[in-house]
Automatic annotation (TrEMBL):
Coiled coil: none
GO molecular function, one term: protein transmembrane transporter activity
The name this protein goes by in its record: Protein translocase subunit SecE
Family according to the record: Belongs to the SecE/SEC61-gamma family.
Record bears the keyword Transport: yes
Example GO biological process: intracellular protein transmembrane transport
InterPro entries: SecE_bac (IPR005807), SecE_sf (IPR038379), Translocase_SecE/Sec61-g (IPR001901)
PANTHER family, alphabetized: PROTEIN TRANSLOCASE SUBUNIT SECE
GO cellular component: plasma membrane
Protein's job: Essential subunit of the Sec protein translocation channel SecYEG. Clamps together the 2 halves of SecY. May contact the channel plug during translocation.
Subunit: Component of the Sec protein translocase complex. Heterotrimer consisting of SecY, SecE and SecG subunits. The heterotrimers can form oligomers, although 1 heterotrimer is thought to be able to translocate proteins. Interacts with the ribosome. Interacts with SecDF, and other proteins may be involved. Interacts with SecA.
UniProtKB keywords: Cell membrane, Membrane, Protein transport, Translocation, Transmembrane, Transmembrane helix, Transport
Length: 63
């Protein structure tokens, strides 16, 4: 099976034509959703860390 650069480029162009790019609005909404989820995850892990630290400190009797 021989490699044909011309055929490869034709296939790449064909596949690229099938790509649907998101609109500016979709990109903005998705970006905002990512920031919100990052903020929520940060709060969750901060609170989890705080609780675990307090429990471990209590159990070990360290002040």
């Amino acid at each position: 099976m021989a490699f044909s650069p011309f055929k490869f480029l034709q296939e790449v162009r064909s596949e690229t034509a099938k790509v649907t790019w998101p609109t500016r609005r979709e990109t903005t909404i998705t970006t905002i959703m990512v920031f919100v989820m990052v903020a929520l995850a940060s709060i969750f892990f901060f609170m989890s860390d705080l609780i675990i630290r307090n429990v471990v400190t209590f159990l070990l009797g360290v002040h």
